[in-house]
Amino acid sequence: MIPIAKPFIGDEEIKEVEAVLRSGFIAQGPKVAEFEEKFAEYIGTRHAVATSSGTTALHVAILCAGIGKGDEVITTPFSFAATANSVLYAGGKPVFVDIDPKTYNINPEKIEEAITDKTKAILPVHLYGQPADMDQICKIAEDHDLKIIEDAAQAHGAIYHGKKVGSIGDMACFSFYPTKNITTGEGGIITTDDDAFDKDARAIRAHGESERYEHVTLGYNFRMTDIAAAIGVVQIKRLEEFNEKRIENAEYLTEHINSIEGIESPYVAENVRHVFHQYTVRVENGKRDELKEFLNNEGIGTGVHYPRTIYNQKLYEDLGYTADCPEAEKAAAEVLSLPVNPTLTAEDFGKIVSVLQDASDKIFK
Ligand SMILES: Cc1ncc(COP(=O)(O)O)c(C=O)c1O
Question: GO MF terms on file (predicted)?
Answer without folding.
Answer: pyridoxal phosphate binding; transaminase activity
